[in-house]
Amino acid sequence: MKVKDCLTEKVVTVKRSTTLSQLIKTFQKYNFHTLPVVEEDNRLVGVVNFEDILKVFQPYSEDLSKMLEAVPFLEMESKEEDFIGADISSEMGVLVVVDDIMNTHFATIDSETDINQARAQMKLHSVDQLSVVKEEKLIGMISLFDIILAVFRERGIIQ
Amino acid sequence: MTILSLGFILLGGLLAGKLIRQLKIPMVTAYLILGIIIGPAALNLVTAGILNSSGLISNIVLGLIAFSIGQNFALERFRKIGRPVIWMSIFAAALPWFLVTVVLVTLMKQPLHIALLFGAISSATAPAATMMVVREYKAKGSFTDTLLGIVAIDDAWCLIIFALSFAVARALAVHMTASLFIFKVLFYSFLEIIGACILGGALALALSFLSRFISSPADLLIYVLGFIFLNTGLALYFNFSVLLANMFMGAILVNAHKLSFKFFEALKSIDSPLYLLFFVLAGANLEIGLLKTLGLLGLAYIILRSLGKIGGAYLGGLIAQVPARMRNYMGWALLPQAGVALGVALVVKTEFPQIGSMIFTTIVATTVIYEIIGPICTRISLKKAGEI
Known about the structure:
heterodimer, A: alpha+beta, CBS-domain
């Protein structure tokens, strides 16, 4: 069985320009962990997880934070900013956009890939869903649950 | 006994880290002081077996550090660093190296290879100590951003400067009495550096290409660690620079593989206990008897390194045309010295048995001093710059 046989084609996406408050509402509405970020032509340019929202509490830019992550021994000190008691202005909801917090390095899977391979990729990257692409364009998402459904359906356990 | 000792080191380190956090002192310092206390200099709880493996542990840890730092050479990220960070970090690393080396050779009559090694070690800083001050006082602004950019990149310059100096120092020590002395020193240094780059680059491409066969996080960790050991081992075997080979492997990998972050992240699950062990062992390796004879050298090192950091950041700031408050105070904020300096000093101790203990002990002692006065200087400079 291939990824294209069990993917979910109807996918909720966001744009680079989606504001933080729109993003939070989308997460709240659909209860997804990860949302793909696409351009107007449906080209996949990033993914955003709900944990990425915490990046707005980072006092430094995303590039600087990434560079500091590579520095040895910094990890030994406290990693996460104290966001619960943090001071943040309400304007952040419109000032911060998805482009500021999304991940541009992320795993994807081709629609022609075997689902065993898709499952292996999920395990390798410690995720439970992957964006499915064809020629860089997003054509759907495949989650662990999609694979479980497909296998159970194939065995006749569910219709 | 060795395994029991290891248990004490890990649990003692964890406890020391928790206790010392209340005192706002970086973990690295806590581990180092624990090492001094439980080492032969004081309680003598560390077995000879573990002490003798310090060279092995430091090579492994430095391999991991260099590989990790290599990812900061991702081209898309490097381009965004900005001129102030680039120039100030380069000068703040190079001027201490130059000043310490030249003054130790001329005024203090030290052999060139010893002066070179001291100079190279002096270029390192302590990102963890700097970050701790920035977080504690919630510093914000352009000065803080530039400072953090500098500490993020300057250990990379330090490793490069150290690798070059180490290659020359080793060639100097080996070929001191040989004919065609200068030619041999240059040739073997060049070989050590170029060889490391070729080795690191080739293994990065192999790591990237073969990673398609890896399908689980556990295999990924084994795979990456295996490549780092392979790289380190081959570099040691061929007398190439271990630091450059691993940094180059990280740098090529991050640019060659779209999902390279997974390789670096895999290592994060195991590096903490290794770092802890490494710093405690660094403290335990301190030969306290040597301290008495090193007063003048240590003092000169502290003064010259400080002048180099302050002057270097100032010069770099002039070139990058940063505001006066930034170039005047940036060097002060870069004074803490810790992890990478200790790491490379431990390598020196292993590689140069006759002079290594003297260099290593000086660096441990000055690190303790710098880790106490350094964060205070960082705080003052952030205050002077108006960001706390």
